[in-house]
Specification:
By secondary structure, the protein is an alpha+beta fold. The chain is 25% helix and 34% strand. The strands form 3 sheets. A 6-stranded antiparallel β-sheet has the order 2-3-1-9-8-10. The chain has a 6-stranded antiparallel β-sheet with strand order 4-5-6-7-11-12. It starts with a strand and ends with a strand.
Length: 279
């Protein structure tokens, strides 16, 4: 996972970028990269914070020879062969001019910004349910995009909005004073309810857990409560025979339910359960 900010106009002082990055940096503790990319009519200043769960240590933004750049926060679960990093796959599709079409067919959690300085275009993509935050700021002769609103506020932006889920925002930035913004949905959904059972939902939920549990080469951890969410996740992991650990914090949950779940899970694929005192 990566969090980032991107500023388009004149070069931004490093000290200003450091201040703007204050609240984002802790979410990407493995590396922070500051970069300035100069073009004929404007300069792109970026900050990228890396949380290297995958182990590939890919620093952003990604660039190609024509000057296109890509910043990506999230994961692509399908299609993925587990050998090529998500960011590299997205970068190749971007270079081919097929990023939107790829994302329309992909399954993942993401917020993506791409800039093509030759075509004077800036695109923002968000996943179906908006799992990764992304904000857009506009001001006189400058545009900013960031994972946190606070980063844009620190840079002096006042006209700031959060990009909603399932979005494809296409912006012409040939005139930074009056950028032309077109908003589209990325996925066209059929919301007609014609099913009489939960079988399809159950299959899709199990596949979703399989995608996420198998995406990284790491142990699975589930915060266990007495609620439906963690119980369903543990049930799916047991069904999929995927080892995992659980933990419960404090004593505010229904202890009878917690104890019952721990007993069931320990006889299945839960390796261990941990209790922690309230913080």
């Amino acid at each position: 996972m990566q969090l980032y900010s991107c500023h388009i106009r004149k070069p931004v002082e490093r000290s200003s970028l450091i201040r703007a990055n204050k609240h984002i940096k802790g979410r990407g503790p493995d590396a922070t990269t500051y970069k300035t990319i100069r073009h004929k009519r404007f300069t792109i200043s970026t900050v990228h914070n890396l949380l290297d769960i995958s182990g590939y240590s890919i620093y952003q933004p990604l660039e190609d020879d024509s000057g296109k750049i890509l910043l990506f926060n999230g994961e692509i679960y399908r299609p993925s062969d587990g050998k090529v990093p998500d960011t590299k796959v997205l970068s190749e599709r971007f270079k081919q001019g097929a990023l939107k079409e790829f994302l329309q067919e992909a399954n993942g959690e993401y917020a993506i910004v791409s800039v093509d300085p030759i075509a004077y275009s800036l695109n923002i993509f968000t996943d179906l349910i908006g799992t990764k935050p992304i904000f857009l700021g506009k001001d006189v002769e400058r545009i900013g995009v960031a994972s946190y609103k606070s980063a844009l506020e620190s840079l002096g932006f006042e006209d700031i909005k959060e990009i909603p889920p399932n979005s494809f925002l296409k912006m012409n930035i040939s005139n930074l004073n009056k950028p032309i913004e077109n908003n589209h949905t990325l996925h066209n959904l059929n919301l007609e309810q014609g099913l009489s059972t939960l079988r399809d939902w159950s299959d899709d939920f199990t596949q979703s857990v399989r995608d996420r549990a198998g995406h990284f080469n790491s142990r699975v951890f589930v915060p266990l409560s007495a609620g439906y969410d963690s119980g369903a996740i543990c049930c799916a992991l047991n069904k999929l025979q995927i080892p995992y650990i659980t933990a419960t914090v404090g004593d505010s949950e229904n202890q009878d339910i917690i104890n019952h779940r721990v007993a069931i899970n320990s006889n299945s694929f839960c390796i261990d359960h941990y209790y922690f005192d309230p913080i």
